[in-house]
Specification:
- 66% of the residues lie in helices and 0% in strands.
- It starts with 13 loop residues before the first helix and ends in a 5-residue tail after the last helix.
- The chain is an all-alpha fold.
- Helix 2 crosses helix 3 and helix 6 packs antiparallel against helix 7.
- The protein is elongated.
Length: 155
């Protein structure tokens, strides 16, 4: 009898999750000088647990392992886990910038169209048409300036 899929989408097996955990540990060790004890301490576990995860001797991967690695070393290290369900980890500060791109692009298109129709100067009608987009972009720029200032970055 053929295996019938129970869910609409493939659900990662415990084996695939264990493979992702192993890949995460190996990537961290490749790029950083850390011991299993140090990795284990990040998620309140032992060096033995980390070794079992690396050797895929256990298929129980704690969520705290994934979150601890992401927080300590960066989102790039948890990509094998995120890929299991078709996602990518993106830092929160990047998410805001990514979400701003459509508004900035729309404004640039409207500004270009207004410049073409109005020549070198933008007339009052063209300016009135682009004002909603200009406000959106102004809010985005203000938010990015505030974020930079909070991080100690000056222009």
């Amino acid at each position: 009898m053929a295996h019938q899929q129970k869910y609409l989408f493939d659900i990662p097996t415990s084996g695939k999750i264990a493979e992702a955990a192993r890949a995460i540990i190996l990537a961290v060790k490749r790029d950083h000088v850390v011991t299993n004890a140090q990795i284990g301490a990040l998620f309140d576990s032992s060096a033995d647990t980390v070794q079992r995860l690396e050797d895929m001797q256990t298929k129980k991967v704690p969520a705290s392992f994934i979150t601890a690695i992401g927080a300590a070393f960066g989102e790039q290290y948890i990509q094998p886990y995120m890929a299991l369900f078709g996602c990518r980890a993106v830092p929160q500060h990047c998410e805001e910038v990514i979400n701003a791109v459509p508004a900035v692009t729309a404004f640039a298109a409207k500004l270009a169209a207004a410049s073409i129709n109005g020549g070198a100067k933008i007339n009052h009608q063209a300016l009135a048409d682009i004002m909603p987009s200009l406000r959106d972009v102004d809010a985005i720029v203000s938010s990015l300036r505030a974020m930079a200032s909070a991080q100690g970055i000056t222009a």
